[in-house]
Amino acid sequence: MISPLRLLPMAAVGAALFAATTSQAAVSVPFDFSKQAIALNVTVKGAPLYVLLDTGADPSLIDIHRADALGLPINRSAGGNADGEGSGNTTVFPSTIQQLAIAGHAFGDVESLAADTAALSKSYGRRVDGVLGYSFLKDKIVLIDYPASTVTIFASAKESAASVASCRKHYATPLRSFADDQIPVIPDFHLGSASVPVSLDTGSNRGIALYQSALDADGVRGALKLTGKVQGAGARGSFSSDAATLNAPIALGPFRLPAGETVVVMSDKGSAETRVANVGNRTFAAMHVRLLLDYPAKQLSFYGDCTH
Fold first, then answer.
1. What's the whole-number mean pLDDT along residues 258-268?
2. What angle do CA 305, 201, 134 make, to 5 degrees?
3. Are strands 105-115 and 60-63 parallel, antiparallel or unpaired?
4. What's this model's pTM, rounded to 2 decimal places?
């Protein structure tokens, strides 16, 4: 199980080094969903890398050993600790992913952190060279098509609108986040009869991870049946959480799943004012959605029942 990556260093690590530049043409590529994560084959300085596309990571991440091998800049005098799930400490250093290309389309340099991704790779089940997070996504329009297992990065809003024009189901909300992170928040996700705020995390190969505050939402605690423990890995290493069955339907606008979804219950408190749960790829894949993230327009949209 891969958990959300919160790659926020200590204050000493500092601000952005470089902004990603945007390709001038739409780029559509297949993603590997064999581990229920959005995994892409990219190149950095011409070398092939295997990376995850993660709305929950800020900024992006490069494995420190790969960074050294590729001659990427690493500021080892400004290290800090990653913030996120896990019981250990992960040291991160400011870095830059240079000459990023996807399917031959150049995206320039991307602000990143460098860290050892061994724990992440072990949990994932194969070597992960890095993560493309908010520092890559922040100026882009990206469509994640779960049924087709493709990612498309559009050059214009007109192109993105045309790609979903045939879809008969639609849910939209402003693309916003809370506090000091950049993970998108859906304000009205339904757990049974409760309407709650949740974070949208394409870096998680789980379905729904409930925080403790979710248990106070109407009917949620009574709908849970604990089934055991599960292991996961986050930005700070491995962790354990409770597995459960949620005996209540879930919904996002017109997209619904029946009672019986497997969820995990985290020790984090969460908050009804920000988010009470984190929703990952398993749920969106089960809902058969096309997820459109329009960062320039600050719009988050889900589409379904599409004819092409």
1. 94
2. 110
3. parallel
4. 0.89
